[in-house]
Amino acid sequence: MPDASPTKSRILDAAEELFGDHGYAATTLRAVTEAAGANVAAVNYHFGSKEGLLRAVVRRAMESVNAERERRLDELTAAGTPPGVGDLVRTFVGTGASLVRRHGPRGPRVARFVGRVVCEPDPRIRRIFADEVSPVEGRYRTALAAALPELPADEVTFRYRAMIGLLALHQSGTLTGLSPDTSPTGPETDTERLITLLTTAFTAPRT
Amino acid sequence: MPDASPTKSRILDAAEELFGDHGYAATTLRAVTEAAGANVAAVNYHFGSKEGLLRAVVRRAMESVNAERERRLDELTAAGTPPGVGDLVRTFVGTGASLVRRHGPRGPRVARFVGRVVCEPDPRIRRIFADEVSPVEGRYRTALAAALPELPADEVTFRYRAMIGLLALHQSGTLTGLSPDTSPTGPETDTERLITLLTTAFTAPRT
DNA sequence: GTCTATACGAAGATAGAC
DNA sequence: GTCTATCTTCGTATAGAC
After folding, report:
1. Is the Cβ pair A207, B193 closer than 8 Å?
2. 20 to 30 Å CA-CA from A140: which of A66, B25, B37, B186?
């Protein structure tokens, strides 16, 4: 269903950009509605609250990633032999990094926004994101545990969370530097480096 | 030099706790001064601004960590043979995790605060933290590059930033779960797991 | 149903009294 | 040094135009 309201859609676009650029708490609703060419009260009408607006932006950004992660995990498990750690990490990280391509011209903005939301320490914001990705997250964690039978379940969880965190830092540009465009190498190189780092980290001996 | 003003000291304590619990942006100056039993304008007088208060809290939290990181790196390099990756990672991560012990009863609060600040995506906040740790940070990065001669310099930097990021996520409790006390294992176990993960990750093949 | 105009209480910052 | 008063701006709530 395409957006019934053009105002609603413009507010989503503006919030996505401003939340990603300045963070959730530092972004004022007035800045969002001004950029969207709408009135302040419109966000309360369409999304209920500032938090409701955040949830809507997260959902729009993540639903296609969730779908592709499901699809590729289905492919991996349908192949007969259970997927290895390398395949799982590459699929998960690669799908996350493919946010940029998936959202067309809005791609870089979406990636920056998502990376920033995942790093957010506020429990309420973390909860909103967790709600949107928890189904597929559970499937990957189970598959990783199966691929690492010698590793205790809680250490798998520990490393899984490290993967989520590093992917988020990668997407928000923290891993490449303070300024977004200081990286001498391209973003694909960093993604490959992240996959290498994480795959090796997962196969570390148990502690 | 002990604090000239008891009000100033109480404001630092209160800000450390509230910034760590609710994040910088979500913490109101009124909540800080109320918890400190002082007037709202006292923080503006003593620290210039909310940002100045943050810088003061960061400095008080990190100066002993910086000092111990310097000291232990001196020990490591004075031993004759250049330090290996495992020693460097263990020293760096262990020193960061020792925040808890180093600040006595305030320890857990300081660790939560620091972890949260490092994860903060706001460039101004990141800059404040970077200012306080940059000298010793440079020394560790150089030592890591020397211990990994086969790795390109920018990939060392990439993995170094991953270490900083994961240490921060570890200290803010993101790696152990959404709620702070859900971890079935103790914090030392998680620190050991982090050291294992990072040491293995550093020695991954170049990409 | 969609949206705008506007008002309310609370927050951060500042100036000046003491 | 510390506090009071005040200014601007924030998120939210209400009422009504179309």
Report:
1. yes
2. B186
CB neighbourhood size of B150 (10 A): 6
Could you tell me if A4 and A97 are in contact, meaning their C-beta atoms sit under 8 angstroms apart? no
Q: How many CB atoms lie within 10 A of CB B119?
A: 25
Minimum Cα–Cα distance from A121: chain B residue: B116
How far apart (Å, rounded) are the C-alpha atoms in residues B174 and A25? Answer: 19
B79 burial (CB, 10 Å; 0-12 / 13-18 / 19+) is exposed
Nearest to A25 among B23, B130, B174 (CB): B23
pLDDT tens per residue, range A18-53: 999 888 988 999 999 999 999 999 999 999 999 999
Task: Give A129's contacts in chain B (Cβ within 8 Å).
Answer: none
Question: Which pTM was predicted?
Answer: 0.87
How far, in Å, CA of B55 to CA of A172, rounded?
23
pLDDT per position as a tens digit, A87-98: 999 999 999 988
Of A163, A131, A154, A135, the closest CA to residue B176 belongs to A154
CB A95 within 8 A of CB A165: no
- C-beta of residue A132 within 8 angstroms of C-beta of residue A59: yes
The closest of B113, B192, B202, B132 to B163, measured between CA atoms, is B202
Kindly report each contact of residues A29-37 with a partner whose C-beta sits within 8 Å and lies 24 or more positions away, as own/partner.
Answer: A29/A53, A36/A7, A36/A10, A36/A11, A37/A10
> In degrees to the nearest 10, what's the CA dihedral of B155, B160, B162, B166?
160
Q: What was the pLDDT predicted at B168?
A: 86
Beta carbons of A71 and A126 less than 8 angstroms apart:
no
d(CA B74, CA A106): 48
CB-CB neighbors (< 8 A) of B158 in chain A: 175-176, 190, 193, 197
Gap between the Cα atoms of B142 and B8, Å rounded? 38
- Give the distance from CA A164 to its chain's centroid: 8
